[in-house]
Amino acid sequence: MIIIDPAANISAHAIIEDSKKGTEIRIGGGGYIDVFVLIRPVGGIGDIRIGERCYINCGTVIYSGNGITLGNDVLIGPNCTLSGSNHEYRKSYETVYDQRFAPSKGGIIIEDDVWIGSNCSILDGAILRKGAIIGANSLVNKEVPPNAICYGSPAKVVGFRQGDEEAAKYV
Protein backbone atom coordinates (compact mmCIF):
# COMPACT_ATOMS: atom_id res chain seq x y z
CA MET A 1 0.00 0.00 0.00
CA ILE A 2 1.32 3.43 -0.98
CA ILE A 3 0.15 6.44 1.04
CA ILE A 4 1.35 9.84 -0.18
CA ASP A 5 0.47 13.05 1.63
CA PRO A 6 -1.22 15.48 -0.79
CA ALA A 7 1.43 18.10 0.10
CA ALA A 8 4.29 15.82 -1.05
CA ASN A 9 5.95 16.63 -4.36
CA ILE A 10 6.76 13.52 -6.38
CA SER A 11 8.50 13.80 -9.75
CA ALA A 12 6.65 12.16 -12.62
CA HIS A 13 9.93 10.35 -13.31
CA ALA A 14 10.23 8.79 -9.83
CA ILE A 15 9.25 5.14 -9.45
CA ILE A 16 7.43 4.02 -6.31
CA GLU A 17 6.53 0.34 -6.58
CA ASP A 18 3.64 -1.13 -4.66
CA SER A 19 4.27 -4.19 -2.50
CA LYS A 20 3.07 -7.69 -3.23
CA LYS A 21 3.74 -8.78 0.38
CA GLY A 22 2.05 -6.01 2.36
CA THR A 23 4.83 -3.47 2.82
CA GLU A 24 3.44 0.00 3.44
CA ILE A 25 5.13 2.98 1.81
CA ARG A 26 4.17 6.26 3.48
CA ILE A 27 5.46 9.65 2.29
CA GLY A 28 4.87 12.79 4.37
CA GLY A 29 4.08 16.24 3.07
CA GLY A 30 6.23 19.20 2.17
CA GLY A 31 9.17 17.29 0.74
CA TYR A 32 10.29 16.25 -2.70
CA ILE A 33 11.07 12.94 -4.39
CA ASP A 34 13.26 13.85 -7.38
CA VAL A 35 13.57 12.32 -10.85
CA PHE A 36 14.91 8.77 -11.17
CA VAL A 37 14.37 7.92 -7.51
CA LEU A 38 13.36 4.28 -7.06
CA ILE A 39 11.48 3.18 -3.96
CA ARG A 40 11.01 -0.59 -3.99
CA PRO A 41 9.68 -3.05 -1.42
CA VAL A 42 12.17 -5.95 -1.62
CA GLY A 43 14.23 -8.18 0.66
CA GLY A 44 11.82 -8.25 3.58
CA ILE A 45 8.44 -7.08 4.74
CA GLY A 46 9.42 -3.88 6.54
CA ASP A 47 7.62 -0.63 5.84
CA ILE A 48 9.10 2.52 4.33
CA ARG A 49 8.15 5.67 6.20
CA ILE A 50 9.37 9.02 4.91
CA GLY A 51 8.68 11.99 7.19
CA GLU A 52 7.71 15.53 6.37
CA ARG A 53 9.89 17.97 4.41
CA CYS A 54 12.31 15.26 3.25
CA TYR A 55 14.21 15.83 0.02
CA ILE A 56 15.39 12.75 -1.83
CA ASN A 57 17.66 13.64 -4.74
CA CYS A 58 17.84 12.06 -8.18
CA GLY A 59 19.22 8.58 -8.67
CA THR A 60 18.60 7.46 -5.09
CA VAL A 61 17.42 3.88 -4.57
CA ILE A 62 15.52 2.76 -1.47
CA TYR A 63 14.96 -0.99 -0.87
CA SER A 64 12.58 -1.66 2.02
CA GLY A 65 14.16 -4.84 3.35
CA ASN A 66 13.26 -5.01 7.01
CA GLY A 67 12.12 -1.42 7.26
CA ILE A 68 13.34 2.09 6.58
CA THR A 69 12.24 5.11 8.58
CA LEU A 70 13.19 8.68 7.70
CA GLY A 71 12.30 11.37 10.20
CA ASN A 72 11.41 14.93 9.27
CA ASP A 73 13.71 17.33 7.40
CA VAL A 74 16.02 14.61 6.04
CA LEU A 75 18.11 15.55 3.00
CA ILE A 76 19.50 12.78 0.80
CA GLY A 77 21.99 13.67 -1.92
CA PRO A 78 22.00 12.19 -5.42
CA ASN A 79 22.80 8.57 -6.20
CA CYS A 80 22.48 7.18 -2.69
CA THR A 81 21.40 3.65 -1.78
CA LEU A 82 19.40 2.76 1.32
CA SER A 83 19.13 -1.01 1.63
CA GLY A 84 17.41 -2.48 4.66
CA SER A 85 18.35 -6.06 3.73
CA ASN A 86 21.37 -8.33 3.24
CA HIS A 87 21.98 -11.32 1.01
CA GLU A 88 23.12 -14.54 2.63
CA TYR A 89 26.40 -15.78 1.16
CA ARG A 90 28.13 -18.07 3.65
CA LYS A 91 27.34 -21.44 1.98
CA SER A 92 29.87 -21.93 -0.82
CA TYR A 93 27.94 -24.95 -2.10
CA GLU A 94 24.91 -22.74 -2.90
CA THR A 95 24.72 -19.68 -5.10
CA VAL A 96 24.19 -16.36 -3.38
CA TYR A 97 20.94 -16.11 -5.34
CA ASP A 98 19.65 -19.42 -3.92
CA GLN A 99 20.55 -18.46 -0.35
CA ARG A 100 18.15 -15.52 -0.47
CA PHE A 101 18.24 -12.96 2.32
CA ALA A 102 20.11 -13.02 5.62
CA PRO A 103 18.43 -12.23 8.95
CA SER A 104 17.82 -8.54 9.52
CA LYS A 105 20.07 -6.30 11.55
CA GLY A 106 17.06 -4.10 12.31
CA GLY A 107 16.41 -2.16 9.13
CA ILE A 108 17.44 1.50 8.80
CA ILE A 109 16.44 4.38 11.06
CA ILE A 110 17.26 7.96 10.09
CA GLU A 111 16.09 10.52 12.63
CA ASP A 112 15.15 14.19 12.05
CA ASP A 113 17.45 16.83 10.51
CA VAL A 114 19.95 14.42 8.91
CA TRP A 115 21.92 15.27 5.77
CA ILE A 116 23.34 12.44 3.66
CA GLY A 117 25.79 13.54 0.95
CA SER A 118 25.87 12.16 -2.59
CA ASN A 119 26.83 8.58 -3.46
CA CYS A 120 26.37 7.20 0.07
CA SER A 121 25.32 3.68 0.99
CA ILE A 122 23.21 3.26 4.12
CA LEU A 123 22.92 -0.41 5.08
CA ASP A 124 20.71 -2.65 7.22
CA GLY A 125 21.30 -1.94 10.91
CA ALA A 126 22.29 1.70 10.43
CA ILE A 127 20.83 4.26 12.82
CA LEU A 128 21.54 7.91 12.03
CA ARG A 129 20.63 9.96 15.08
CA LYS A 130 19.13 13.44 14.98
CA GLY A 131 21.26 16.07 13.29
CA ALA A 132 23.88 13.69 11.85
CA ILE A 133 25.80 14.69 8.72
CA ILE A 134 27.17 11.98 6.40
CA GLY A 135 29.86 13.06 3.91
CA ALA A 136 29.73 12.12 0.24
CA ASN A 137 30.80 8.61 -0.83
CA SER A 138 30.38 7.17 2.68
CA LEU A 139 29.14 3.77 3.81
CA VAL A 140 27.11 3.64 7.02
CA ASN A 141 26.46 0.25 8.63
CA LYS A 142 26.08 1.10 12.34
CA GLU A 143 24.79 3.78 14.71
CA VAL A 144 25.86 7.41 14.19
CA PRO A 145 25.56 9.69 17.27
CA PRO A 146 23.38 12.82 17.32
CA ASN A 147 24.91 15.84 15.52
CA ALA A 148 27.94 13.78 14.44
CA ILE A 149 29.79 14.61 11.24
CA CYS A 150 30.95 11.38 9.61
CA TYR A 151 32.55 10.24 6.41
CA GLY A 152 34.47 7.31 5.00
CA SER A 153 33.94 3.67 4.17
CA PRO A 154 32.96 2.64 6.74
CA ALA A 155 31.92 6.06 8.02
CA LYS A 156 33.72 7.33 11.12
CA VAL A 157 32.92 10.29 13.36
CA VAL A 158 35.26 13.19 12.59
CA GLY A 159 33.50 15.94 14.53
CA PHE A 160 30.21 17.37 15.70
CA ARG A 161 28.02 20.23 14.55
CA GLN A 162 28.53 23.56 16.32
CA GLY A 163 26.59 23.88 19.53
CA ASP A 164 27.20 20.28 20.60
CA GLU A 165 30.40 20.91 22.55
CA GLU A 166 29.53 18.21 25.10
CA ALA A 167 29.50 15.49 22.42
CA ALA A 168 32.66 16.88 20.79
CA LYS A 169 34.69 15.85 23.85
CA TYR A 170 34.23 12.21 22.82
CA VAL A 171 35.84 12.42 19.36
Write a concise synopsis of the structure shown.
This protein has helices spanning 96-99, 165-168, and strands spanning 2-4, 9-10, 15-16, 25-27, 32-33, 38-40, 48-50, 55-56, 61-63, 68-70, 75-76, 81-83, 108-110, 115-116, 121-123, 127-128, 133-134, 139-140, 143-144, 148-152, 155-160.
Determine the fraction of residues in helical runs and give it as a percent range: under 10%
How many individual helices? 2
Report the mean per-residue pLDDT as an integer.
90
Strand content: 25-35%
Describe the structure in your own words.
By secondary structure, the chain is mainly beta. The chain is built from two helices and 21 strands. The chain has helices at 96-99, 165-168; strands at 2-4, 9-10, 15-16, 25-27, 32-33, 38-40, 48-50, 55-56, 61-63, 68-70, 75-76, 81-83, 108-110, 115-116, 121-123, 127-128, 133-134, 139-140, 143-144, 148-152, 155-160. The longest helix is centred in the middle third of the chain and has 4 residues, at 96-99. The protein starts with a strand and ends with a helix. The model has no long low-confidence stretch (mean pLDDT 90).
